[in-house]
Structure formats: C-alpha cells, structure tokens
Design brief:
The chain has 16 helices and no strands. It is an all-alpha fold and 363 residues long. The protein has a domain of 253 residues.
Length: 363
C-alpha cells in the first residue's frame, strides 16, 4: 500500500505546498527588485508582532473561517459551493434587518438574533442552487457562481433605493444603534495601563467562529446527518443502497453551507462596519475555497488555514504601506498557495507517498 500516514497527509503535504508557494513568491519579489527577506520581515512585524496587527489578522481570519467551513461542509457531500460570496452578502442583509428593526437592550441578545438572521438569509440564498442540483441536475458550481452576481445586484438595489437613510449619498444602511455594537478585542482585553488591539476590528465574533468549527466537527463526524453527508460524498450509489435520499442530503447540506457563509455577516456588518455596506465581503467567499482546500476540509485545518490567509491579508497591507511592492502581489501569493494546495496537490503528494512506501519497504 503506497498511501502515506494520516498525519503526513494532513500536515506534511500542506506544509510542503506552502513552502513551494513561498519559494516562488520570493522569486517574484526578487524579480521586481525587492528583498524577499525584508518583505517577509515586514509582513511578520505588521501582522504578528503588535497587538493591533494581530487584531486585523484575526478579523480577516474570522471571515475566512466562516466561508472556509461553508465550502468544507459542502465538499464532504461532493458539492462545490462557489456561492459563499453571495451567501455572505445576504447574511449581512439578515444582520442589518435584525439590528435595525428591533430596539435591542443589549448586544448579547442582538448577537444571538443576528446570528439566526445571518444564517437564515445565507441558507435561503443557497436553497435554490441546492434544489436545482438535487432535482434537475443543474451543476452547483454554475448556479452558485451566478447567484453571487444576483446577490450583488440585489444588495446594491436595496442599499440605494430602500435601506439608504433619507438625505444620505452613501449607498449604505443607517448605523446600528449603540446597544448592538459588539465588543472589540480592544474593549475586552485592554486594561487601565495597557491598550491592546488599538483600532483593530477584531471582535467577539472570533469566538463565534471557533464555536462554528466545533459545531461542524460534531456535525460531520458525530451525527447521523454527518454520516449521510460523507456517505453521499463517497458514493451516491452506495448512499442510495443504504436508504439515504440524495435529494434531501444535498438540500440540507447546502442549507448548512449557506448558513455558515451567511454567519460571516456578523463579523463584517455588525462587528466592523456597524452598518450594511456594499462589498463588505471583500472576496472572502472566494478565499474560503482556498482555506477549505488547504485545511483538508477539516474544521481544525480550516481554522489554521484561515489564520494563514489572515496573516497574508494584513501582511500584504503592510507591504503596500512601507515598500514599493504592490498590494496585488498578495493576490499572487494567495494564487500560488491555491495552486499548490489545490491544482498541483498530486505533484507534492505522489513523491511523498513514494518516499513513505520506500521507507516501509526498507523497514
């Protein structure tokens, strides 16, 4: 048997892929006349060595955890949900309607209700592609991509014509009441003598993201529904033979996936902007695909990959601020990470499998 140990598949393959992506990124930085060592030092210093940098890194990572989990859950049923961007947009709409419609006395109650609103709207945006896939055979990749564009146009219409306050020129909703503002890490961890996470948008939603990771792990590996999802992903024929309804599992799985993507709206809309704005997702729905691939569709892997991409986002902002390296270079680095962890996965995996097989034969 040529397969490598489980720990190597989960840790070694992504690590080697990341190192290869880093090496190619260093060559790109050299090609534009900058020092890759200095660039990496600036990224680490700006994203990890100061509490404010950590605050931004964790804020971005929180978004990526939700969208990464959304992709991962769908992938276990052999569904490729590319609609996290649109589902997160609609999740933000659900958050805004909850926060603006009811006079909440405290942020804790508002957070619970906004979480339900975000999950419900995100799931609602996933249900039509799910139904079309399950009953009509329409490919989930195509329908979810198209629904991203519909979500963007729909949200733009609402913000310009319905939710924008009278007299305002900004395509955004009214600001949320003070009572529903979420505590930031600066509020939570600063003391009288020490100001931590100053000005950073990281907030209590980070802990909601951790809870979502735990919930997804329990769902996929400790429930009957999780077993049905994985069974359908392994073999639709085998699932039918076992009495599992593919239509039901596909729809339910996509509802859960859309709900997870929608929960990102808590962090971006309620936690950071404190109102509904255009482009609050900032591409996080698509980054979630890379996060899920690199995290091997496991909640722990998704969490760690989200931290990495949060570091890349914040570190890239530091590079653009202090060097001549363009901000777009971070997109190139992200693309290289996606390339090696996704499209070129076998290029890394096969030599490692042969190495472990040779080691077993010698032993």
């Amino acid at each position: 048997m040529d397969r490598m140990p489980a720990w190597a598949d989960a840790v070694l393959v992504p690590l080697v892929s990341l190192l290869l992506a880093g090496a190619l990124s260093a060559l790109v930085i050299l090609a534009i006349g900058e020092s890759p060592v200095e660039a990496f030092r600036l990224m680490v210093d700006g994203a990890l060595m100061r509490s404010a940098g950590w605050g931004y890194t964790l804020y971005y990572a929180t978004n990526f955890v939700f969208t990464g989990l959304a992709v991962a859950v769908a992938f276990h049923a052999r569904l490729f949900n590319i609609g996290g961007e649109g589902q997160a947009m609609l999740g933000g709409l659900g958050v805004a309607l909850v926060c603006l419609s009811i006079p909440w006395p405290h942020w804790t109650l508002a957070l619970a209700a906004a979480s339900l609103g975000a999950a419900a709207f995100g799931a609602l945006w996933a249900v039509v592609p799910a139904w079309l896939q399950a009953t009509r055979g329409s490919h989930i990749v195509i329908t979810t991509i198209m629904f991203n564009f519909i979500a963007a146009a729909f949200l733009n219409y609402l913000l310009v014509n319905v939710l924008k306050p009278a007299g305002s020129m900004d395509p955004a909703s009214a600001r949320f009441p003070e009572a529903v503002h979420l505590p930031t890490f600066e509020d939570m961890f600063s003391t009288a003598g020490t100001a931590l996470f100053r000005g950073a948008p990281a907030n209590v939603t980070f802990f909601v993201a951790i809870a979502a990771c735990i919930a997804v792990w329990l769902l996929i590996w400790r429930t009957r529904l999780g077993y049905e999802i994985r069974a359908l992903g392994f073999s639709e024929t085998g699932a039918r033979y076992a009495g599992i309804s593919p239509v039901r599992v596909v729809v339910v799985t996509m509802l859960i996936s859309g709900a997870l993507a929608g929960l990102m709206g808590i962090n971006a809309t309620m936690g950071e902007a404190e109102r509904l704005i255009l482009n609050s997702t900032e591409g996080a729905g698509f980054i979630g695909i890379a996060v899920a691939l690199m995290g091997r569709n496991h909640p722990l892997g998704v969490f760690l990959a989200a931290l990495l991409f949060g570091f890349l986002y914040q570190g890239g902002a530091e590079l653009a601020l202090w060097t001549n390296i363009p901000r777009e270079l971070i997109v190139v680095i992200q693309a290289l990470v996606i390339l090696f962890t996704g499209a070129l996965d076998n290029m890394v995996r096969m030599p490692l499998e042969r190495a472990f097989a040779g080691r077993r034969r010698r032993g």
